[in-house]
Amino acid sequence: MASADRNYDVFLSFRGEDTRKNFSDHLYTTLIANGIHTFRDSEELDKGGDIASELSRVIQKSRIFIIIFSRNYATSKWCLNELVKITERMTQKESTIHPVFYHVNPSEVRHQSGSYGEAFSNYEKDADLEKENIVKWRAALTQVGNLSGWHVDNQ
């Protein structure tokens, strides 16, 4: 059965290069081991499918979203577009977002400063092409950055 045909308890959103081989992997494994039906792109997407439309369908069928904000999360337009879809989903139906601030200060996400500010400086160089997206990305980061979540750092 295609992943988009199933409902998920949890949808994990993360920047693969930052957390796939450590935090995200451990979290995913723990959720699955405890019987929580969890979506993670590398495990659940059908090979050869239309990734963007399949992810949109999966987001619509998920109830809980765990967003793992890491240093390079905002450098990925894919992650930012996914975040916009998740925040739209939150306003449409009963769902919850649980942010995890992984080695990043929540205020960097909320205010797009630090590494998030650097990413947006790069996007704004092509503002004519990205203007509408930049507004949506900033709004989604601010919205989710204002939610209570978990702050994970080296301590």
From TrEMBL:
One cellular component term from this protein's GO annotations in UniProt: cytoplasm
Protein's GO biological process: defense response to fungus; positive regulation of programmed cell death; signal transduction
Keywords: Cytoplasm, Hydrolase, NAD, Nucleus
Main location: cytoplasm
Catalyzed reaction equations: NAD(+) + H2O = ADP-D-ribose + nicotinamide + H(+)
The EC number(s) this enzyme carries: 3.2.2.6
Annotated compartments: Cytoplasm; Nucleus
Entry GO MF terms: NAD+ nucleosidase activity, cyclic ADP-ribose generating
Residues covered by the TIR domain: 6-155
Residues of the signal peptide: none
Enzyme class: hydrolase
Superkingdom of origin: Eukaryota
One Pfam match: TIR
Similarity annotation: Belongs to the disease resistance TIR-NB-LRR family.
Protein name, as recorded: ADP-ribosyl cyclase/cyclic ADP-ribose hydrolase
